[in-house]
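Most newcomers find our protein records easier to grasp once they have seen one. Read left to right, the backbone structure tokens trace the chain's path through space. Nothing more is needed to start thinking about how sequence determines fold. An example says more than a description, so a record of this kind follows:
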Amino acid sequence: MTFSKKPMRVTSVTRRTIIGSMAALPMLGLRSPAIAQQPDAISVRVDFAPWGVHGALHLAQAKGWIKDSNLVMDLQDGTGTLNTINLVAAGKVDVGLVQVGPMAVARANGLPVKSFAGYLRKGDLSVIVDAAKGPKTVKELAGKKIVCFANSPWAPFIDQYIKMIGLQKGTGADQVNAVMVSPAAMVSTFASGDADGFFSLSEFGEPLVMDTRPGRSFLAADAGIVFPSYGLVTTDDSLTKRKDALRRLSETQTRAWTYIYENPAHIDEAVAAIMAARADKQLKTEVLKAQLVLSKDFLNTPNTQGKPNGWQSTDDWTLAIKSMTEAGLLKPGAKPDDFFTNDLIKS
């Protein structure tokens, strides 16, 4: 075997040569080395101490879906929906998992917050009474003592609700006696028998008393009050500057809420994820599971059937605005797109 002894031709390497070679790589089936992107840090604060509705966030974290979406999530417990909304508005946390009804009120009062995903889209405000011995119809709430707390999302609607069911508020035998107590005392006041009922959320409150004084709910929605429940909220600024990260977060939540209800065993997975992440809390597995089971009843309205979890309906928001305006929470003229966007939800 012989080798040519011709002198080698040396080609100068120019910027144009490099760019041209890189452009040819895809044509040759080759790929330039991937540059790993730093994950986006995102803080999410829930409304309250751990309960069932937080399951989708904990599940997505536990199954690695948050990490797979190139996110690092700081998931924080809250001390109330209003507190979480205020912290989001102030830029102290990126996202809140809260009732989006109070968010709308906050926005109408000047806070730059907006919902970008809704999960419990049917109103869940309810009056919970003794399932065995309590009133069987809303008319039988007359003469009964029903407790609430001042910052409850129920508080602005109590007078309106009582009127809509054809009763009056007061202490008489034919009136509904609505009494304000501290948040910590509300459930125990009912459970001990010192009240005939309490204003709460059906999927939250019923499981809390199922071992002491089982309850059942009268839904405010059945009386005509429309008030959207849990979803994700953030600031206008974040919707502009962090849109891609928020979209990825919402995708993990659509995936998680769908997964949870595909199989009863998946509910147990979500409960286990909460328990593992909050092992230092005194949580009851059966209560968390019951809360998640009941939450399914509030995922959809007729206007959201067939839409992805997270997608919100303009028609539902129109009805909610009407209820909130009648309760004096919003001024006339509010529009649905003032309060929510579906831009981050895949159709």
Q: What stands out?
A: The longest helix spans residues 243-260. Confidence is low (pLDDT under 50) at residues 1-35. The chain has two domains: 40-122+227-338, 125-223.
